[in-house]
Amino acid sequence: MNHIKTVATAALLVISATATAAEYEVTQKNKAFSVKELNIKVGDTVKFTNQDSFFHNVFSLSDLKTFDLGSYPKGEYKKVTFDKAGKVEVECAIHPSMLMTINVE
Ligand SMILES: [Cu+2]
After folding, report:
1. Ligand 1 center to residue 74 CA distance, Å?
2. What spacing in Å lies between the alpha carbon of 62 and ligand 1's midpoint?
């Protein structure tokens, strides 16, 4: 019985740790990000979904969070979790005019 109780407590801790983190979705449509600017909190995740019928890429060269999610087609998404406060510029390598800013607080 003691063992079962320990497992239940551990599960509760996992739930409370993730409950404070939010997930946002930014879509790529008509060669643009759905928002120009997004304000999130440290620990939050942003899901980048391609809604165009051609490939988009998602990357950032920002010091705060450097990443490259690669290129992917319509209907697919990739997620990034932001673990530090600051500003992140997000771009698409295929379409240079696509640009957005994420403010992590
Ligand atoms: Cu693009």
Report:
1. 11
2. 18
Mind listing the pLDDT tens digit for each residue in 23-59? 999 999 999 999 999 999 999 999 999 999 999 999 9
Ligand 1 geometric centre to CA of 24 (Å): 19
- Could you tell me the distance, in angstroms and rounded to a whole number, from the CA of residue 72 to the centre of ligand 1? 10
Per-domain boundaries in the chain: 21-104
54-103 per-position pLDDT tens digit: 999 999 999 999 999 999 999 999 999 999 999 999 999 999 999 999 99
Please state whether the predicted TM-score (pTM) of the whole model is above 0.70. yes
| CA 71 to centroid of ligand 1, rounded, Å | 8
Domain spanning 21-104 has what CATH number?
Answer: 2.60.40.420
Helix H, strand E, coil C: the string for the chain is: CHHHHHHHHHHHHHHHHHHCCCEEEEEEECCEECCCEEEECCCCEEEEEECCCCCEEEEECCCCCCEEEEEECCCCEEEEECCCCEEEEEECCCCCCCEEEEEEC
